Each structure stands twice: as structure tokens, then as C-alpha cells.
């Protein structure tokens, strides 16, 4: 079919321009083929429903076939698309192998050189002479580049499944809007149009009958008619960041320079981070740490009711205390591994860092945070040692699992907000993140230098401090700063200690 033939021809043209496959490209092709050959149902399940919908849309749009005539045969159509890709990958691989036998260092034969010179002297571009600069100016198709990037990331364990699906959904949305074209043909106007649609795109559009299965622009129009909520600024910026990351990767792979059409393009937030959440008041803090979770509750299930159950062996007990005395992000604490509780020169500390594909740091930069003396007093190190002794546990909070978005903090965030409501300490602008704002205020009260406070919390350093140096500080200096952090009028005497 012409649809598959055009994709195959584009792939061969790309390979003609690049020459024989590198070892990395061969490995990438083998990985893509392994993925495609696992079976029809398995392949599309791995790639996700949004990916399948996008592929179907592109197929019917490019082939001109009436989609309505094939509604009852969608699995067969998807299988044909998959088989077409397998055939294309194999043929392009063979084409690449044939190029290995061609000596690119040899000059063209005299008859061919004379033919080309004669053609150009008469103002006629020969087919051979015209294809090379056209292809050089265009580069590989975006869909092929993303397949290569995806295969590489999965092989290297760079992306968790949730991250892969997130990348795929935004790349395929861009393809649906701008079309599948050679990457160098995209312009800043394509990125701006993508951003404009994103800012009006309804949230959870596949969950509502008003927007389900509609193309993006039609979904935007339907959302306006029905007054549906749109995706958040954070989500818009994440989508733009995913595309920019792919463009950056492509620039490293190709001989040609790939312009960064997505930067700078992120949407400025309308409010400051401090305006999005309040720190807890001293009254709220006392209510929280005098509540049954910290002084004895009825049971884990009824942890807001007084009783004799000791919660010092649970994440419910330790996460709020760690938030109070580290200022760390909730997921940074939830994902801690046992080796992240460490000691150096007699100073115990938390090593907040990216490790396996489940560990994420917002800035990507690891940091060491000294453990506050109050946490030592309440027994955090004893708790960590007890977990270490437990067989089969490799995380500090082994009962926590990754949520659908790949974060260990999904469930704890909801649990803590519900607990605040139950004990009467919740307001509209307070949540677990309020501990982070409160820690910043505590640093100011303790006259901790701003740069040191930013290092403790994992903030990017500003001004000259951000431009020079490694952006960290010796552990003794950080400990001295941490010992200055306190909360006037907050007593933890009533909080149970880990045995």
C-alpha cells in the first residue's frame, strides 16, 4: 500500500544520507523490532491506547481510506500497521547492510560525473543530485526519531513505563497537530501552535463523552461549548518540556543542527510558589503533632482516633516529621532507599538523589541533608536501623508503592490531606508542601544564609552563586545551619519515640 511504501522510501532516503548503520543504530533497530514482534495485542498494549489512536488517525488520514468502513476491523488494521513497520525496519536494515559494501571514498565514475555536470550546466537537477540536498535539509521523520529514542530509553532503563507513556502521549499529540514530517522541516510556528492548543486542551479529554475520541482542535471547541476545565499550566509546561527534550536528543544524534523550536516557550505561572500554598501556623503544627497519629491511636485504619497503637514504625508517622525538619519534597522522602540514610564524619544525613528509574529529583541534582537533632531524638535513626534489619526491605518506607504517575507520594499526599481534614487542621492552601514553606521560614528565623537554605531544600541557586562553584556545601556547614532550624512554641514532648 502507498502509505507503507512512502514510509519505507523516506527511511531509505534517510539511510542513503547517513550511510551505513552505526553499532548503536543497529542495536536500536533490533530493540524496535523486538518490541514490534512480540505480537499484535502485546505490542499495542505496551505502547498504550493513545499511541494506537494516534497511529490509526495518521493511517486513515494518509491512506485516504474511510475510517467508518473499518470500525469493526480495527484490530486487523492495527496489525497491518505493525506488520508494515516490521517489514520496513527489516528492509531498511538490509538496505543499510548493502551500503556497508559501498566504498564512499571512491570518486564517482567519469560517465556519471560528466552526466551530472551536463545536467547542471543546462539548469536541470538530476534525480540523484536533487535527492541528497533535499533529504539533508529535512532529516528523518519525527515518528522514526521518537521510536529510536524510545527504544534507546527502554533498553537503558532511563524511562519508567509511566514516563514512556507520558512522552508518547505528548509526541503523538504534536504529530496529530503538525503532521509526521522530517524533523528539520518543523518551525517555531509549529511549536507555538502546539502550545496554543495545549493551553485550551480539556483535562482528561478521553474520559468525557463530550470530548472522547475527538481530534485535539475539535476537543478544544467542544470543551469551550460545555465549559470543561483545561489542563493545568504545569501540565502544559511538562508537555513542552517533553518535546524540547526530544529535540535536544535529536540534535545530538544527527549531523545537522536541530534548532530548539520549543525554547524558551514555557508558560509563566500566574502566582508565586509561596502564593500557591501557605506554611502551617504554629496552632496548626501543634494540632498536627499532638494528634493521635503521634501520641497513640486506635489503629492504623482509625489513626485519627485516640488509643494505644504505636505508629512509630509507619510512614504515616515519619513523613510529617521529616517534612518539618528537612523541608524536602514529599516524593523525595517517600522514595528513600536504605542506603540513602548514611553517615559521614559522624554526621547522619539523608542522601536525596536519583537512583533507579523509580527515584526522581525535581532538579536532577543530588544533595545531602543532615538529619536534624529533633529527628534523632524522636528515634528516626533507630527506625531506619530496624527497617535495615528487616528481610527483603530495600526502601526506608517499604509499604509505599508507586502510583499511576510513577511517584511514591501519590497515596501519602492524599492520606495526609485527609488526615488534616479529620483532625481540623486543613485549610484551602495547606498540604504536605506547607512543611517546605515552613522550613524556609524557619531558616530565615535562624539566620541561615539564603544560599545554604537553598542547598538544603534543593533549590537552584540564584545570581552569581548559581553561576560559579558546584552548588553545594560541606556537610558540617549544612549541619550547623540545620541546628539553627526551630519552631517556636511547638513542643514534641508528647510525640512517641521509636523504641
Q: Could you characterize what this model shows?
A:
There is one protein chain. With 499 residues, the chain is mainly α. The protein has 24 helices and 3 strands. The radius of gyration is 28 Å and the shape is elongated. Strands 1-2-3 form a 3-stranded antiparallel beta sheet. Helix 1 packs parallel to helix 5 (74-100), helix 4 packs parallel to helix 9 and helix 10 packs antiparallel against helix 12. It folds into 3 domains: 1-101, no CATH class; 160-268, no CATH class; 280-482, hpI Integrase, Chain A (Orthogonal Bundle). The longest helix is centred in the first third of the chain and has 27 residues, at 74-100.
**How helical, in percent, are the residues?**
55-70%
Radius of gyration: 28 Å
Give the strand order of the largest sheet, numbering strands 1, 2, ... along the chain. 1-2-3
Which stretches are low in confidence, meaning pLDDT under 50 for 5 or more residues running?
102-136, 463-470
The amount of beta strand, in percent, is: under 5%
**Strands, count:** 3
- Tell me the name of the CATH homologous superfamily of the largest domain: Intergrase catalytic core
Structural class, judged by helices and strands?
Answer: mainly alpha
N/C terminus separation: 72 Å
* The level-1 CATH class of the largest domain: Mainly Alpha
Shape: elongated
Q: Layout of helices and strands, plus pairs?
A:
Elements: H1 2-18, H2 23-36, H3 40-47, H4 49-63, H5 74-100, H6 110-121, H7 127-138, H8 142-156, H9 161-178, H10 188-200, H11 216-226, H12 233-253, H13 273-276, H14 282-289, H15 292-295, H16 315-326, H17 330-334, E1 341-344, E2 347-352, E3 367-370, H18 373-378, H19 380-389, H20 410-423, H21 434-445, H22 450-457, H23 463-467, H24 475-482
Helix pairs in contact: 1-5, 1-7, 2-5, 2-8, 3-5, 4-5, 4-9, 8-9, 9-12, 10-12, 16-21
Amino acid at each position: 500500500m502507498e502509505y507503507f511504501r512512502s514510509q519505507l522510501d523516506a527511511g531509505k532516503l534517510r539511510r542513503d544520507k547517513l550511510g551505513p548503520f552505526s553499532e548503536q543504530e543497529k542495536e536500536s533497530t533490533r530493540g524496535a523490532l523486538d518490541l514490534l514482534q512480540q505480537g499484535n495485542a502485546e505490542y499495542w498494549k505496551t505502547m498504550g491506547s493513545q499511541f494506537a489512536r494516534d497511529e490509526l488517525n495518521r493511517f486513515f488520514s494518509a491512506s485516504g481510506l474511510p475510517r467508518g468502513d473499518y470500525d469493526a476491523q480495527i484490530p486487523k488494521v492495527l496489525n497491518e500497521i505493525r506488520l508494515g513497520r516490521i517489514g520496513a525496519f527489516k528492509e531498511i536494515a538490509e538496505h543499510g547492510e548493502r551500503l556497508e559494501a559501498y566504498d564512499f571514498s571512491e570518486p564517482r565514475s567519469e560517465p556519471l560525473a560528466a552526466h551530472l555536470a551536463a545536467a547542471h550546466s543546462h539548469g536541470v537537477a538530476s534525480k540523484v543530485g536533487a535527492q541528497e540536498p533535499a533529504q539533508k535539509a529535512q532529516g528523518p521523520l519525527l515518528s522514526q526519531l521518537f521510536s529510536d529514542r524510545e527504544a534507546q530509553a527502554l533498553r537503558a532503563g532511563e524511562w519508567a513505563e509511566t514516563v514512556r507513556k507520558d512522552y508518547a502521549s505528548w509526541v503523538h499529540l504534536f504529530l496529530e497537530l503538525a503532521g509526521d514530517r522530517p524533523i528539520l522541516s518543523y518551525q517555531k510556528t509549529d511549536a507555538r501552535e502546539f502550545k496554543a492548543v495545549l493551553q485550551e486542551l480539556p483535562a482528561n479529554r478521553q474520559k468525557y463523552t463530550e470530548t472522547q475520541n475527538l481530534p485535539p482542535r475539535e476537543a478544544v471547541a467542544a470543551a469551550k461549548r460545555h465549559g470543561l476545565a483545561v489542563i493545568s499550566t504545569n501540565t502544559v509546561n511538562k508537555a513542552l518540556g517533553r518535546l524540547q527534550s526530544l529535540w535536544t536528543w535529536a540534535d545530538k544524534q544527527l549531523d545537522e543542527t536541530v534548532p530548539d523550536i520549543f525554547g524558551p516557550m514555557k508558560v509563566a505561572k500566574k502566582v508565586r510558589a509561596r502564593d500557591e500554598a501557605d506554611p502551617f501556623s504554629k496552632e496548626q503544627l501543634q494540632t498536627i503533632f499532638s494528634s493521635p497519629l503521634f501520641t497513640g491511636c486506635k489503629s492504623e485504619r482509625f489513626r485519627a482516633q485516640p488509643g494505644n497503637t504505636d505508629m512509630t514504625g509507619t510512614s504515616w508517622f515519619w513523613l510529617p516529621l521529616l517534612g518539618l525538619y528537612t523541608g524536602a519534597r514529599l516524593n523525595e522522602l517517600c522514595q528513600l532507599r536504605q542506603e540513602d540514610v548514611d553517615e559521614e564524619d559522624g554526621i547522619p544525613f539523608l542522601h536525596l538523589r536519583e537512583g533507579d528509574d523509580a527515584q526522581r529529583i525535581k532538579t536532577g541534582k543530588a544533595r545531602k541533608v543532615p538529619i536534624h537533632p529533633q529527628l534523632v531524638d524522636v528515634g528516626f535513626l533507630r527506625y531506619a536501623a530496624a527497617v535495615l534489619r528487616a528481610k527483603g526491605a530495600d526502601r526506608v518506607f517499604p509499604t509505599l508503592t508507586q502510583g499511576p504517575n510513577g511517584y511514591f507520594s501519590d497515596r501519602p499526599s492524599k492520606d495526609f490531606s485527609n488526615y488534616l481534614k479529620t483532625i481540623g487542621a486543613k485549610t484551602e492552601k495547606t498540604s504536605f508542601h506547607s512543611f517546605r514553606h515552613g522550613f524556609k521560614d524557619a531558616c530565615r528565623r535562624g539566620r541561615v544564609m539564603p544560599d545554604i537554605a537553598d542547598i538544603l531544600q534543593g533549590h537552584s541557586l540564584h545570581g552569581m552563586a548559581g553561576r560559579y562553584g558546584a552548588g553545594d556545601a560541606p556537610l558540617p556547614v549544612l549541619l550547623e545551619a540545620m541546628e539553627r532550624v526551630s519552631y517556636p512554641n511547638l513542643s514534641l514532648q508528647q510525640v512517641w519515640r521509636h523504641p
